[in-house]
Design a protein that fits this description.
Blueprint (H helix, E strand, L loop, with lengths): L2 H13 L1 H9 L4 H17 L5 H13 L11 H11 L6 H7 L10 H4 L4 E6 L6 H11 L3 E5 L2 H13 L4 E4 L4 E2 L10 E5 L8 E7 L11 H10 L1 E9 L4 H11 L3 E5 L6 E3 L14 E4 L3 H13 L4 E4 L5 H12 L7 E4 L13 E4 L3 E5 L5 E5 L2 H8 L12 E5 L2 H12 L8 E3 L3 H10 L5 H11 L6 E3 L3 H9 L7 H8 L8 H15 L6 H8 L9 H23 L7 H20 L1 H11 L18 H7 L4 H13 L4 H4 L1 H7 L2 H5 L6 H8 L4 H17 L7 H15 L1
Main location: mitochondrion
Catalytic activity: ATP + H2O = ADP + phosphate + H(+)
EC number: 3.6.4.13
Length: 723
């Protein structure tokens, strides 16, 4: 057979729409069809011989040109047989489709469907008393469960209940605390939402922050609680934007929703002026930043003015957050300013008079799992702004503004926009579903099983499959370690930040020792973390202590699931409390740590810690830079966006090639510098440093930006060299 003729006919076979349609009917989507064809073509072209029947078909097609004896479509049975050899799931596609059919989630919870539940939606903005009323019903019930998004919230309800002489247990991913000394289960329980039981009957259940049912990573937990809790009354608290979705979901279960609307208890005013300078700070002010570097920069500038400030951000341990909140709230403490991320949006009671947005853009993760930077949403802005003027605090009215004047107009637009309705609820494959997949595909890795499950899953318009990138990252990381499927699944659902190498490495070591059936002891953990640890001397050491705290959290989380293999939870919890105290010392002295970090860093370094947050370009990014500087400005912005931390300053040459001198000197409307400030890609401190460096290097003529005479002299010297 002519190799050229065979190849030409194989490619013709691949391009035929009828063949692609037949492939789809047999479970080969576009990606699998392409992969199967490449393998099939390689098999035919590189094999020294093929089966007689396939050879006859190829001969008929090539010699007869498809006129009488053969047609390229005749290759399909051979192609499908080959595809099933490399994709075994094609033989059991019908079974796999049934397993991954997610169109009727209410049917997963027969105990909840067996009772007629009463659904009450408490809808209102932050500081409207909606959760308070739901909790009052929780406390008056004979039994109840509170489900919240944060350990801090669960702990708060746990304390409130026991203070009100209503015995209540606490259940989070890392611990269970019993109200009764004899470890007898109390009739009430406060838990993080992932930990709620769908088998235990209660009189009242409270599901807090229901709008998080749309969360790309955790939304499945709210869906599970809403559909599966066995309670006579389900009290749902959250934004009015979720009312329609909850009503539709309950319609599919045959349950009606009673909506109770609440209004904010104290007035909230958006000011007509921006702060513009930290010299204008007042007691009770909270500056909200969306990156650690901005937290460090702003807090240092505040303390340089002789003011004390408390600091709260997401990666701090809960105990440290509470201590910082207590310090800020204490009327007798000289600390009257708070610098925080959007971590203050829920879980902390704070006496804030005025919220000041340092920036109105923040890094986010889109539905594809890509990193982006974009304006905060109306929901996020309202959640954060609503923390000002809390009911019952010393401030009877809340105020909101921005740090920069140009941001204020956009903030007002964001706050005046209506919150878009929540359109879909998250779902996640269960371990039972993955185990059934593994039965049909015993040789597939866990990461591949998840991929196949998602590709075959069917959902209706009310649901979506949650992002599973973190799960797959951990599955790939521990794939080489011999574990049974259920244990492997548990390790992959561990709550950790995959951007923290020390925590990821520890999980890998945990899994390896677990696979050898060797218990992870307290002594082993102390050796691994080099405990005891000293107070941090710089920001890098503080960040490492936060990572060690996360490692202790990971140990406690695994000890709750594998008690025999992680036996020293009590000892680990004790040293975690000591570590919390050490971190508190570091946070209280954060400006000293920043100074130490900057003095140790290379000259010209503007940031004290690099935040590895690769950002994908958005339409908004392109729009911002296209008006005046064209392609060169786009290049400059891509450098500013794509180069994290210190590299933004180190790439000054590329930045200068795109921006004119006045862009660094001018802070006026429309300049590149001003736009980068608004986008959160530069801070004022970085801008001043860039301007200073540019002026110094301009005087030295280092980058060819000197006078015409310098250019002429340079040209002459070049000419001499050529001669």
């Amino acid at each position: 057979l002519s190799t050229g003729e065979v190849l030409k006919n194989l490619n013709k076979f691949y391009k035929r729409k009828e063949i692609q349609r037949l492939g789809a009917e047999n479970g080969l989507d576009a990606r699998l069809f392409y992969q199967a064809f490449i393998s099939f073509r390689k098999y035919i072209m590189e094999s020294s011989s093929v089966s007689a029947d396939l050879h006859i078909i190829l001969n008929d097609i090539c010699c007869d040109a498809g006129k009488y004896l053969g047609h390229v479509d005749d290759l399909f049975p051979f192609f499908l047989r080959h595809a099933k050899q490399i994709f075994p799931m094609l033989d059991c596609m019908d079974d796999l489709r049934k397993i991954s059919d997610l169109r009727l989630p209410p049917n997963w919870y027969p105990d909840a469907r067996a009772i007629q539940r009463k659904i009450i939606f408490h809808a209102g903005p932050t500081n409207s008393g909606k959760t308070y009323h739901a909790i009052q019903r929780f406390l008056s019930a004979k039994s109840g469960i509170y489900c919240g998004p944060l350990k801090l919230l669960a702990h708060e309800i746990f304390q409130k209940s026991n203070d009100a002489n209503v015995p209540c247990d606490l259940l989070t991913g890392e611990e269970r605390v019993y109200a009764n000394e004899d470890a007898r289960q109390a009739p009430h329980i406060a838990c993080t939402i992932e930990m709620c039981s769908t088998n235990t009957p209660y009189e009242v259940a409270v599901i807090d922050e229901i709008q998080m049912i749309r969360d790309p990573a955790r939304g499945w937990a709210w869906t599970r609680a809403l559909l599966g809790l066995c309670a006579e009354e389900i009290h749902v608290c959250g934004e009015p934007a979720a009312i329609d979705l909850v009503t539709e979901l309950m319609y599919t279960t045959g349950e009606e929703v009673e909506v109770r609307n609440y209004k904010r208890l104290t007035p909230l005013t958006v000011l007509d002026y921006a702060l513009e300078s930290l010299d204008n700070l007042q007691p009770g002010d909270c500056i909200v930043c969306f990156s650690k570097n901005d937290i460090y920069s702003v807090s240092r500038q505040i303390e340089a003015r002789g003011l004390e400030c408390a600091v709260i951000y997401g990666s701090l341990p809960p105990g440290t957050k509470l201590e910082q909140a207590k310090k800020f709230n204490d009327p007798d403490d000289p600390c009257k300013i708070l610098v925080a991320t959007d971590a203050i949006g829920m879980g902390l009671n704070l006496c804030i008079k005025r919220i000041i947005f340092n920036s109105i853009v923040k890094p986010t993760v889109n539905e594809k799992g890509e990193k982006e930077i974009d304006s905060i949403t109306t929901s996020q802005a309202l959640q954060i702004a609503g923390r000002a003027g809390r009911y019952g605090s010393s401030f009877k009215q809340g105020e909101v503004t921005t740090m920069h004047r140009d941001d204020l107009v956009q903030l007002k637009e964001i706050l005046n926009d209506s919150v878009p309705p929540v359109k879909a609820a998250g779902l996640h494959p269960t371990p039972e579903q993955i185990e059934m997949f593994a039965y049909h595909l015993p040789d597939a890795t866990l990461s591949n099983l998840i991929d196949i499950f998602v590709s075959l899953s069917q959902v209706d318009g009310l649901y979506f499959v949650c992002n599973i990138d973190d799960f797959k990252f951990l599955a790939d990381m521990i794939q080489h370690i011999p574990l049974n499927l259920r244990s492997r699944y548990v390790f992959c659902t561990a709550p950790l930040n995959r951007k923290e190498p020390f925590v990821c490495t520890t999980l890998l070591k945990f899994a390896r020792q677990f696979s050898r059936n060797e218990p992870l002891t307290f002594d082993w953990l102390c050796r691994h973390t080099k405990w005891p640890l000293a107070a941090p001397k710089n920001i890098k050491e503080l960040v490492h202590l936060e990572a060690v705290h996360d490692v202790f959290d990971l140990y406690l989380w695994l000890s709750y699931r594998f008690m025999d293999m992680f036996p020293d939870a009590v000892l680990v919890r004790d040293i975690q409390k000591k570590l919390d105290d050490i971190i508190q010392i570091g946070v209280c002295n954060i400006t000293r740590l920043i100074r130490a970090s900057q003095s140790a860093a290379a000259p010209g370094t503007a940031e004290v810690v690099s935040e590895d947050f690769p950002l994908s370009r958005t339409k908004r990014d392109a729009r911002v830079v296209s008006d005046r500087h064209g392609a060169r400005s786009t290049e400059a912005l891509s450098i500013a966006v794509g180069v994290p931390g210190e590299r933004r300053v180190k790439n000054l040459k590329a930045y200068r090639s795109a921006a004119r001198q006045e862009d660094l000197k001018s802070h006026g409307r429309g300049s590149l510098a001003n736009r980068l400030l608004r986008e959160g890609l530069l801070t004022q401190e970085m801008l001043r440093q860039l301007e200073s460096e540019w002026q110094n290097q301009h005087r030295n003529g280092r980058y060819g930006l000197g006078s015409k005479r310098d250019d002429q002299n340079s040209s002459k010297e070049t000419g001499k060299k050529k001669k």
